[in-house]
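step=predict obj=Alpha-ketoglutarate permease n=375
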Amino acid sequence: MAGDGFEMAFLSRHITDMGFTPAQSAVVFTFYGLAAALAAWASGVVAELITPQRAMMIGFVLWIVMHTLFMSLGLGLRNYPLMVLFYGIRGLAYPLFIYSFMMMLVQVLPREKLAAATGWFWAMYSVGIGVIGSYLPSLTIPMLGETGTLWLAIIWVASGGILAYFSLRKVPVDRSRVNLPMRDKMTEMARAVTILFTNQNVFYACLIRIINTLSLFGFAIIMPLLFVDRLGFTISEWLQIWAVFFFVTIFTNIFWGLTGEKLGWIRQVRWFGCLGMAISSLTFYYLPLYAGHNFWVALIPAVMLGIFVAAFVPMTAVFPTLEPHHKGAAVSIYNLSAGLSNFVAPAIASVMLPFFDIVGVVWAYTGLYVFRLAC
């Protein structure tokens, strides 16, 4: 996830610096998010049908190939259609890798340990995509440039993929569906859609999970435009602020994973997740706008966002609990929700930016958190 996260907080601005509009930049991320949503949806069932290890390796190889094409033929040639195409296809890769690993956790661990384990899962996700993925580029960009830093990501992803191959290949996963007839496999894949209509609780949980990380994915796109272009922060300062946000989630993911068992999953999600994210999203925009180019003040909303976004951690355990006889389909819906968040956040930005600017996008995200709180 470190390699996948290298571009997260600066690629949108990198694309605009090449002469494309902010809306065009957001469209690139929108197609990426759509592909990520599709891969995330399929990963749970695919992992059940071919084993999590094989699904992870498919995602790993796909990432390496598509990133190389994106860098050489997309960004390298400044070819916008190829940028959208290859970056979009690359969006299939990381969800297939990480959510297949999550399916492995669901298969192997007992229910009473699952919430805490997923807390650790998301903590390591934050270490990779956020802390290393954001902080390291703040050091390498002055030396290698933005393009060199994007190429460096391949080394990190390759290291993670190779490590996963050798360390996880002997994990005793559930293989009961691997040898199913193709017709039965297609039925199981279809269940990853029909479960939304046959289980109302899964549908509502899906909506909550989509809203969960809107600010996470959206702010990575719109906030560099505010902090760097308007408030005078350097790209390295912005990356360090974003890295602090993810650094906080290392600890809060674990904290909320354990706290949810005592406080109650839904109560925690409602009052600390939805309400907390609404407040911290507004603070992330208005406090730096008021304080100006003040690095230490800008860290306050980053810490707040890191505290409250992790309050949604129990949602990982909620989905298979709501559909215990079809855990693969339930996890696929969870993954779909996470992927759709990656799609919806930049989609909202691409629609709102031309008409309502950055503040309109921030209020759109906030309104959805409040809507989910009220419902």
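step=describe
The radius of gyration is 20 Å.
step=end
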